[in-house]
Amino acid sequence: MTSARTRREALPKAGGAISQPRADLHPHPTVRTDLFLLAIAISGISLSAPLIAATAAPALAIAFWRNAMAVGALSPFALTRHRAELFSLGRRNLLLAVAAGALLAVHFGVWLPSLQMTSVASSTALVTTTPIWTTLLMRLRGHRPPALVWAGTALAFLGVVILTGVDLSLSSRALAGDALALFGGMTAAGYVLLGAEVRRTVGTVTYSYVCYGTTTVLLLAACLVSGASLGGYDGGTWLKLAVLTVTAQLLGHSLINRVVKGLGPSITSTAILLETPGAALIAALWLGQTPPAASYPALAVIMAGLGLVIMADRAAKKG
Predict the structure, then answer these.
(1) Counting beta carbons within 10 angstroms of the beta carbon of residue 87, is it exposed (0 to 12), middle (13 to 18) or buried (19 or more)?
(2) DSSP code per residue over 75-131
(3) Is residue 31 a part of any domain in this protein?
(4) What gap in Å lies between CA 163 and CA 84, rounded to an integer?
């Protein structure tokens, strides 16, 4: 009787001893999956600038349609498979998701026009200050990012500066465009942080559906107020809008919404810097635009910075 009881009590311990080595053999399977999905997301959003440059439609209209089409694509899933979660969202999560959608709308609304007011180099460099603002906002919220996060963020942003250069102009129009791009980087940081908070308890489809829905409504209002044409495009333009929706919005932003839960806002926002060299390389292959000589060393510097942020995050989790 005693020996049987001893054996029964030993079973949980034995089970624990067996399961632990398996975890050691595969310490971070979820992280590896998230990094793979993040790479796909960055590839998707890297298509954004070349596609926008090749699409004959107003900037605000492009931003509206990419979100509206994404909402249409997500509707069958959100209203069937995720219906229960969608209609049981708590007040807090709903408000945060709506706020994230509002920030995403502002991001699109200020950054795209800035490309027509200042140089592409200046606009790109300023809008990709997102990880800097993300780290600062996290610090204001009481989170103390490790020194490696600050170093990695600075190094990654240096890579963007190497690629784009410093091309700030003193003209009033260019300065206004620079200010819009900078504000676009700030709002993107808020969007990433709010998304990370909501995604702690809410699924990707449900969050993205509410977020993109809010963005769509606000951008529609902006288009109506500004008089941006929402139709009358040729078939090629509609096709490019559809491709933009699938790549930059559904594969890009939606996968970012997916991985931010596991990777966190620091890694996610820093990785977004890879959009700049990615867009340059895609433009070279698709539009025949020769990439700057600094593209490849800049990519290496950005990757090194991202690596430091990932190392800091993994060290913090182990600690």
Answers:
(1) exposed
(2) HHHHTTTTHHHHHT--HHHHHHHHHHHHHHHHHHHHHHHHTTTS-HHHHHHHHTTHH
(3) no
(4) 46
Q: Which two tokens stand for residue 310?
A: 């990932």
Judge whether 12 lies within some domain: no
Please tell me the pTM assigned to this model: 0.78
How do residues 200-230 score in pLDDT, each as one tens digit? 999 999 999 999 999 999 999 999 999 999 9
Asked if residue 17 is part of any domain, the answer here is no
Length of the chain: 319
Q: How far is residue 268's CA from residue 259's CA, in Å, rounded to a whole number?
A: 8
φ/ψ region of 168 (left if φ > 0, alpha if ψ in -120 to 50, else beta) reads beta
Q: CA-to-CA distance for 229 and 58, rounded, in angstroms? A: 7
| Burial (Cβ within 10 Å: 0-12, 13-18, ≥19) of residue 94 | middle
Strand intervals (E) in 50-134: none
CA atoms within 13 A on the CB side of 151: 10
Domain extent for 63: 46-318
Q: Please state, in angstroms and rounded to a whole number, the distance separating the CA atoms of residues 56 and 129.
A: 28
Q: Within the chain, which residues score under 70 in pLDDT?
A: 1-29, 119-122, 125, 163-170, 279-280, 283-296, 313-314, 316-319
CB 154 within 8 A of CB 207: no
Domain count, the chain: 1
Rounded to whole angstroms, the Cα distance separating 127 from 64 reads 19
34 part of a folded domain: no
Spatial contact of 298 and 162, defined as CB atoms under 8 Å apart: yes
